[in-house]
Amino acid sequence: MTDSKVLEERNIVAGRVAIVTGAGGGLGRSHARLLASQGARVVVNDLGGSLDGTGSDTSAADQVVAEIRSAGGEAVASHDDIASWEGGQAVVETALNHFGTLDIVINNAGILRDSSLKKMTEAQWEAVLSVHLSGTMHVTKAAWSTLCDKGYGRIVTTTSAAGLYGNFGQSNYSSAKMGVVGLTNTLAQEGAKYRVRVNAIAPIARSRMTETILPPPVLAKLEPEFVSPVVLHLCSEELQESGRIYAVGGGYVARVAMVEGVGVQLPTAGGLDLDEIRKQWSVINELTNARPFGSAMESIGAAMTGLAADE
Ligand code: NAI
After folding, report:
1. Residue of 89, 108, 204 to test ligand 1 pocket, by largest number of atoms within 8 Å of CB
2. Has 173 been annotated as catalytic?
3. Which of 30, 46, 167 to mutate to test the pocket of ligand 1 (most atoms within 8 A of CB)?
4. Can you tell me the distance from the alpha carbon of 244 to that of 256, in angstroms, rounded to the nearest whole number?
5. For the chain, which residues score pLDDT lower than 70?
6. Which one is catalytic: 152, 165, 173, 246?
7. Could you tell me which of 89, 63, 96, 90 has the C-alpha nearest to residue 78?
8. Do 34 and 4 meet the contact criterion of CB atoms below 8 Å apart?
9. Taking CA 168 as the corner, what is the angle to CA 165 and CA 169, rounded to the nearest 5 degrees?
10. Does residue 158's CB lie within 6 angstroms of at least one atom of ligand 1?
11. Alpha carbon of 259 to those of 130, 285, 290, 302: distances in Å?
């Protein structure tokens, strides 16, 4: 494996307490190891199940804890299933009981149950939503009051290009991952006054999730360790951004944003005219000068500005 190149003297998370869910393998393991190497005390959470979320095995989290300890870091294992409210609570209690506080939550755990919508079963839908979307909620909700009370927190959520842009055969996963974006956006706003910053990554990395999808030469360029330093930065004290999404993989790092076109303001006196909508359809679809909004209120404000100009 490749170790992330981070200058030791930076110590940007030294002494902080971090939870990393799904840290028994793949990206989570890499995040946990990097945070610990930078002086954070880490709860390594992993249920240790298979890719589809069935089964459990304590050795996944235990192994990563052993790796961190043998490198001189501090870590404790949690084998809790974050798909339940109790599991989320238990992960946070592990941090509080062992380390006395909590500063950082990396919501990373995930499973796949791919199927086209035609064949999608209720169980496939529910399982994926429960781990990715509800799991992120369970751990974050359990952590929230500790972070808000201390007036400091860094939360990283994990979305996916599949959610942001859609991917054939992943309606459950895409929905869950876009739900994570909604949660991130709202928590960024609710956490602002407590200095709790909440950002999402959309990673691409070699892991058991991708090793059957991407060819080996491509996978070789996508070490999980090429994602984790961005997560580390999102956990730093100096970080000002919140409610942002970053696509990260193989050295590529880019901000992703939801944008709204400039649009048109159609007359409403006497009703909204279908012919007007049709006439302006190409302008409505135009994204030149499209902008991201910082909140729903900003977006509504932009629509209201058009309305005021129309009066
Ligand atoms: P992975 O399968 O190696 O890691 C996921 C980990 O989560 C596993 O160790 C698994 O045991 C754990 N886990 C699953 N359900 C759990 C539960 N209920 N409670 C606790 N732990 C649980 O996969 P990978 O690739 O490292 O994925 C990490 C995250 O990144 C996931 O959220 C995934 O959706 C996301 N992602 C990964 C991409 C990639 O290219 N690898 C692309 C886009 C998103």
Report:
1. 108
2. yes
3. 46
4. 7
5. 1-10, 306-311
6. 173
7. 90
8. yes
9. 125
10. yes
11. 28, 12, 6, 12
| Nearest residue to 140 via CA among 100, 188, 175, 174 | 188
Q: How far is CA 32 from CA 8, 24, 46, 60, in A?
A: 16, 9, 11, 13
What integer pLDDT is reported at residue 94 of this predicted model? 98
Distance of alpha carbon 141 from alpha carbon 88, whole angstroms: 8
CA 111 to each of CA 129, 176, 221, 264: distance values in angstroms, whole numbers, following the listed order: 10, 11, 23, 42
Q: Is the CB of 153 within 6 Å of ligand 1?
A: no
pLDDT tens digit sequence for 83-109? 999 999 999 999 999 999 999 999 999
- The answer to whether the beta carbons of residues 99 and 78 sit under 8 Å apart is no
- Residue showing tokens 């509504």: 300
Longest Cα–Cα distance in the chain:
74
What's the whole-model pTM score?
0.96
CA atoms within 13 A on the CB side of 278: 3
Q: Is the dihedral angle over the CA atoms 280, 284, 286, 291 positive or is it negative?
A: positive
Rounded CA gap, 293 and 296, in Å?
7
Amino acid identity of 122?
E
- How many Å apart are CA 223 and CA 3, to the nearest integer? 9
